[in-house]
Amino acid sequence: MSRSVFTSAYSQLLRSLVQARVAAGIRQIDLAERLGKPQSFVSKMETGERRLDLIEFLVVARALGIDPDTIISQLARDLPANTKI
Fold it and tell me: Which pLDDT score, from 0 to 100, does residue 1 have?
């Protein structure tokens, strides 16, 4: 059984966060400073090497100045009915 971190849905979540960061003109190092983490934390998060839990996702969304509901709603709409974890 594969872990959901490797699913296309999780990849879409990461792409959404990267797109939001880039659209806001925020560099990885800037986001890391906002989170009180090293830049490598953001890099590993964005590449999927480090998995985000729900609370971390909410903190990252807040640091990016984005509405987490928007990302979650889009993921829910796009998630195939037969998706397994």
Answer: 44
- Output the CA torsion sign for 53, 68, 71, 73: positive
CATH topology (fold) of 4-75: 434 Repressor (Amino-terminal Domain) (1.10.260)
Rounded to an integer, what is the distance from CA 60 to the centroid of its chain? Answer: 8
pLDDT value, residue 49 = 93
Q: Hunting for tokens 């990016």 — which residue is that?
A: 64
User: Domain locations in the chain?
Assistant: 4-75
> Both tokens of residue 33?
């400073």
Tell me the C-alpha distance between 61 and 71, whole Å.
9
Mutual angle of helices 54-64 and 8-23, in 10-degree steps: 20
Low-confidence ranges of the chain (pLDDT < 70): 1-5
The pTM of this model reads: 0.86
